[in-house]
């Protein structure tokens, strides 16, 4: 089989944490000096729900804001294309969650959206879908990347469901991929979205997010999968 030639390819710039504004949510680069207390509260804080939201990543339990700061400081390295995006609700500007660009390989045009955590204020809402729409659009259209990845613990049902819902394609499972900080085995499921697939995924997300898809009580009329299927 003759390899496909990637015409006129040049390496991309490292990923950045963008400031993007949608109808329901905005994304901003993490400010370690200001955002940690807000994120700590948004994800559950001292009531242990913060650990419930992050438990699948394999880290040790987070006991306080400093633990969260230390964790995010490890990931927020913009020079390498690994950067934390903070989600703020529109119009209140309330911090409600986060996600990171990571495992970035500019020479291949590949990056992952990971360390995803939606607090109660945005979980299972249009804000969550719009946040991932904005991040994917930035990766593909602004930065010119070819491949967008989503990886999660095989046992993390909500994350696996979200990946499929947003239009990522399941690629397989890395068995015995990680021994977590708690000493547990983690099998990791891999998903991806390609630049050639993004126009269809984008159209479906925009159709789902459009105000006409919601009734006067804010309930969706059609699921995102409806628009994914109808746009194939």
Briefly say what this structure is.
With 232 residues, the chain is α+β, with helices and mostly antiparallel strands.
The H-and-E topology, N to C, reads as: EEHHHEEEHEHEEHH
| Poorly predicted tracts of residues | none
Give the CATH level 1 class. Alpha Beta
Q: What is the CATH topology?
A: Aminopeptidase
| Average pLDDT | 94
Q: Distance between termini? A: 27 Å
* CATH superfamily annotation: Gcn5-related N-acetyltransferase (GNAT)
GO molecular function: protein N-terminal-serine acetyltransferase activity; protein-N-terminal-alanine acetyltransferase activity
Pfam families: Acetyltransf_3
InterPro entries: Acyl_CoA_acyltransferase, GNAT_dom, Ribosomal_N-acetyltransferase
Domain N-acetyltransferase: 59-169
Give the key terms.
Aminopeptidase, alpha+beta, Inherit from proNOG: -acetyltransferase, 232 residues, GNAT_dom, eight-stranded mixed beta sheet, 8 strands
What does this structure look like?
This protein has 232 residues and is of the alpha+beta class. The chain has one domain (20-230): 3-Layer(aba) Sandwich (Aminopeptidase). Helices cover 31% and strands 27% of the residues. The chain is built from seven helices and eight strands. The protein has helices at residues 35-42, 49-54, 65-75, 126-142, 157-166, 198-209, 224-230; strands spanning 20-21, 25-29, 83-89, 95-105, 110-118, 147-153, 169-179, 185-194. The protein has an eight-stranded mixed β-sheet, with helices on both faces. The radius of gyration is 18 Å and the shape is globular. The two termini are 27 Å apart. The mean pLDDT is 94. Residues 212-232 are annotated as: Disordered. One of its GO terms (cellular component) is cytoplasm. Residues 59-169 form the N-acetyltransferase domain.
